[in-house]
Amino acid sequence: MNILSIAYYTFIRNIRDVKAMLAFILLPILMILILGKALDSAYTPKKIDPMNVGYFSKDDGLLNNSLNEFFTAKETRTILEVKKVNTFKDGMDQVKSGKLKGLVYLEKGMSNSYENGEHVNINFYSKEKNSYVQPVLESFVRTFNIGNTLIKINGQQVQPNSNPSIIKEVKIVTEGKIPRGIDYYSLTALFQSLLFGAIFGVFAITKDLGNHTNLRMNTAPIQTSKIILGKLAGSTLTLYGISLFIFLISKFVFQANLNGSLWLILLVLFLFSAIAVAFGMILAYISKSTMTSALSIFIIGTILTLVAGGFSRMDGKVIEMLSYLSPNTYAQKALFTNIFEGTFTQSNIFGLVIYTIIVIALTFITGRRRVA
Amino acid sequence: MLLEVNNLIKRYGDFLALDHITFAVKEGEIFGLLGPNGAGKTTTISIISSLTQYDGGEVKFLGKEIKRHEMEVKQELGIVPQEIAIFEDLTAYENLDYFGRLYGLRGNLLKERITEALAFTGLTDRRKDRPKGFSGGMKRRLNIACAILHHPKLIIMDEPTVGIDPQSRNHILQSIKELNKMGSTIIYTSHYMEEVEEICTRVAIVDHGRVIAQGTKEELTALVSTEEKLVIELSSVNYTVVEQIKSISSIRECIIKGNSLEVVGKKGEHNVSRVINLLTEAGIEILSLNVEKPSLEAVFLTLTGRSLRD
């Protein structure tokens, strides 16, 4: 019950801080508006000319026949111009020289393997990392094999004079759903702002140091862990409320496409709010200073947003590795894949949950140590 | 004994903040911890309140070691910190509600206690206001209200009158006396001698982390006072009588100040009656007579060789 009292009054004190509340509501809204509108062209799909793609199949069964039908279908031909090549080598040479944008290749006996229940791959080779052929093939696989996961697309990137057997998984945006600028920044700017919302965690600690109420709380018959939990809960509730408000503004005022699973969205926003508040509390426990903590939040928050592609999409192995240190990565991926691909990626949610547990554990460790 | 502090030691690195401090507080008394800034009063209070760990000795509350019964002991303590410890963004009522809940008060009992604490501190009319607009004295009163609403057995007040106007100071001192009359035991720390003299039943004088003397005010002054001073206001001054007074063997000096005499002599030698007899026989009217006793300031000065506010 004491935890609830602390949480309640922490929440009340937060919402009475009109300046902070206004800042944390207006900041993300402005960011979403500015980034979303200014960079919208970078995310708006342009008219696509049919892409030249080679097709070579050593398979002569069901899969080959179905894929042939798929390639000759009217809808497919509006985006793909499929040309059969005589040999695999011929196809790869044309890909390397740029005559073909990619090569679809079926191995011998694939249909039999598939019918025997084995896991088979449709191979796709391309010089372009983000070719939209893959989503098209994904679409074929889904149509062909609804609810069956036996077939998977292997995205393989071909470098001139490189070994074509090097396989690289390429992220796929399926079903033609591509986020617009406003969609993208509605989420990335929201998560960035929520990271800055760590200041509510800082306030929960430093305000009590400033007005000496920490003395009174620490002399009350209540364990330190309950005080920490109460403050964490109250501030998380504040930030969560702000995040939901901004989410609704993005969805209904800015008309951003945020039509994913409501429960998933609520869960991700809640976990992320808890991470941000806990992060702020850790900084406050260590520095015991609002200014130092705020500065740290700004610097660390900006870096975490940057590596997660919050300002603009970034490529590169190092960046990709670094991005997994950022909670924004898990949150953004979880929602993007859900909203734009219609899928539920457990790994991102799992990553976010683990992240939350670690940060909250660190909050308790630093909080208890500082008090003792 | 309600509280027993035995050979308490506290070190901050090489600095010995508390050097075997020993004292005991009886139920129902106002116990003063008197000493200059940095003497160790607040450290002692912090240890009793379980805010600070100690390096040696023991602290027992109702016979229980506070280290082992921290929550139990905390429940029975009411702390009035030296700093005003209230939420500026919550109303007076909400402040009390918040802290009352931390002490396990709920429902009607909590409401009753809040009403009682507000009335006791004279803040009923301001219960819906946030302390931002309160005067220093009102904030101090709210600070006290937060500490007493759970009816603690021992109230610890760490310099509760620092930085406030005389009127609010008087109000607080009266409140402390009233709390004591209602049965509360109080530990009162201060470096204001006159406050301690006015309200405390027993006093421990602390300096450099040690208790250098303790007892009732009378016991303490008896430690150092061998003389007494009479201040006598007269209708007129007769120099012959002054010489007669000076000739009394137990009188050290007799100074004329206008129509008054200041007579300093050994204690316990019946100087008052002797001087009155001489004046009466000479037909001099005594307008007033005051026997000045040694103050705790003098005690502190004698024991430490320096003034309390040095």
Polypeptide structure, described:
Chain B: It holds the Pfam family ABC_tran. Chain B: One of its GO terms (molecular function) is ATP hydrolysis activity. Chain B: This is ABC transporter ATP-binding protein. The complex is a heterodimer of chains A (372) and B (310). With 372 residues, chain A is an alpha/beta fold. Chain A folds into 2 domains: 2-41 and 178-371, no CATH class; 51-157, abc type-2 transporter like domain (abc type-2 transporter like fold, 3-Layer(aba) Sandwich), CATH 3.40.1710. In chain A, 64% of the residues lie in helices and 8% in strands. Chain A has 17 helices and 5 strands. Chain A has helices spanning 2-16, 18-38, 40-43, 62-72, 74-77, 88-97, 110-115, 133-144, 181-196, 199-210, 213-218, 224-253, 262-287, 290-307, 317-323, 327-340, 346-371, and strands spanning 51-57, 80-84, 102-106, 120-126, 151-157. Chain A has a 5-stranded mixed beta sheet with strand order 2-1-3-4-5, with helices on both faces. In chain A, β4 (120-126), α8 and β5 (151-157) form a beta-alpha-beta unit. Chain A is elongated, with a radius of gyration of 26 Å. Chain B has 310 residues and is of the alpha/beta class. Chain B folds into 2 domains: 3-222, P-loop containing nucleotide triphosphate hydrolases (Rossmann fold, 3-Layer(aba) Sandwich), CATH 3.40.50.300; 227-292, Alpha-Beta Plaits (2-Layer Sandwich). In chain B, β1 and β2 form a beta hairpin. The model of chain B has no long low-confidence stretch (mean pLDDT 89). The A-B interface holds A 1-2, 5-6, 9, 12-13, 16-17, 211-213, 215-223, 372 and B 49-51, 53, 71-72, 74-75, 77, 79, 81, 83-90, 94, 98-99, 101-104, 106, 146-147.
